[in-house]
TrEMBL record:
Residues 210-244 are annotated as: Disordered. It comes from Lentzea flava. This is Secreted protein. It comes from the Bacteria. Keywords: Membrane, Transmembrane, Transmembrane helix. The chain crosses the membrane at residues 6-25.
Length: 244
């Protein structure tokens, strides 16, 4: 005995309603996150951009290599003070395949490193198949994380007890922290609140201070720019253009 047509119609209708509800919920969450990120940027005196296709191409390692280049959503760009001076920062939703997989937080150093260092939580399946950026060599445990590096001797000089201590403060919700060129970056969970991102920015800033200490030579200091209400300085980037 065949199943009546009305049963199939009912199943299809229920599935359609469920799919629509799921889409509406996702869109509502997306809109709420967009408003929250936009308000946070305005409060800090930073720039906000809804979408940037070029920004993720600045990096190749860490979460970018694991998930793919993708695109940046709800991007916040600015600069803030760390203990060793003013540093450029980015915060963005990293989207691949139409899904936000993480919130990337980046703090820029004054000098580029000659080695890439990735610090992964041991609970993360960090192996990847990426011809452009294959998995670096395993160096070993660094605190509660495992270090993968592109140059073992060079990395050993950089991974000091101070760096390990700074990395340990970042938190177990951050799957990977990595050092690439003149950036320190971290991948936080999707929907991380501005308060959590503020803490993560401070922690990443401390890690940047360890590997890129302040040079007291006045001739190398940058000219000051406008300050925001919290004492941080405002950076005015050009979205959509890959910077050197």
């Amino acid at each position: 005995m065949g199943i009546p047509a009305w049963v199939w119609f009912t199943v299809a209708a229920v599935a359609g309603v469920a799919g629509f509800a799921l889409l509406a919920t996702d869109r509502a969450q997306r809109t709420a996150r967009n408003r929250e990120r936009r308000r946070w940027a305005a409060l800090r005196g930073w720039q906000f951009e809804e979408t940037d296709h070029v920004l993720p191409t600045r990096w190749e390692a860490g979460a970018i290599a694991y998930y793919g280049t993708g695109l940046a959503r709800d991007v916040v760009a600015g600069s803030t003070f760390t203990a060793d001076g003013r540093r450029q920062v980015y915060v963005l939703d990293h989207e691949t395949g139409g899904k936000v997989n993480s919130v990337l937080v980046g703090v820029r150093c004054r000098r580029a490193l000659s080695v890439v260092i990735e610090l992964w939580l041991s609970t993360v399946p960090f192996q990847r198949d990426n011809d452009k950026m294959p998995m670096p060599d395993l160096l070993g445990p660094v605190g509660s994380r495992y270090a993968f590096v592109t140059d073992v001797p060079a990395a050993r000089k950089i991974i000091t007890p101070d760096l390990i201590d700074a990395a340990e403060e970042i938190g177990g919700d951050v799957t990977v922290v990595w050092l690439e060129n003149d950036w320190v970056l971290a991948a936080a969970p999707p929907n991380s609140s501005p308060a959590r991102l503020e803490r993560l920015l401070r922690d990443i800033g401390e890690l940047a201070d360890v590997i890129d200490p302040f040079d007291p030579d006045p001739s190398e200091r940058e000219e000051p720019v406008a300050e925001d209400d919290e004492g941080g300085e405002v950076y005015r980037p050009s979205f959509g253009r890959k910077q050197p």
